[in-house]
Amino acid sequence: MPISPYSQKINKPWGYEIVFTPKNLERVGKILFIKKGCRLSLQYHDQKEETLCLFQGKAKIWLEDEKGQIKPLYMKPQMGYTILKGQKHRLEALEDSFVFEVSSPEKGTTYRLEDDYQRGAEKLK
Fold first, then answer.
1. Given 46, 52, 66, 98, which is the most exposed site by the fewest CB atoms within 10 A?
2. Maximal CA-CA distance, the chain
3. pLDDT tens digits along 58-90
4. pLDDT per residue over 31-56, tens digit each?
5. Which H, E and C letters describe the chain, residue by residue?
């Protein structure tokens, strides 16, 4: 099998993401760049699970707990935060931040409950 590098940059209103895994794999790897003061939507996925890891910067992750309460946590660098299917979550950059994301395939729907950029639900595949 030939080795060929892969990268797809996708601009977002909060920064950008770089997908570095080919589309035919059973996992997705991304690098998220989130600009200081910006945040992703409060959202949940009906089919996707993901793990986030703060690589550089300062960020908060808002996670729904087992009682349905959404609580903020200051992300610790190089620590993984796993988000299960249906679990509400949001990222917020306190300074320019890079976050690694590893997830199941981009399938199903992302439901945005709150969004600073007035985007609606997003069908993934």
1. 66
2. 48
3. 999 999 999 999 999 999 999 999 999 999 999
4. 999 999 999 999 999 999 999 999 99
5. CCCCCCCEEEEECCEEEEECCCCCCCCEEEEEEECCCCECCEEEECCCCEEEEEEECCEEEEEECCCCCEEEEECCCCCEEEECCCCCEEEEECCCEEEEEEECCCCCEEEEEECCCCCCCEECC
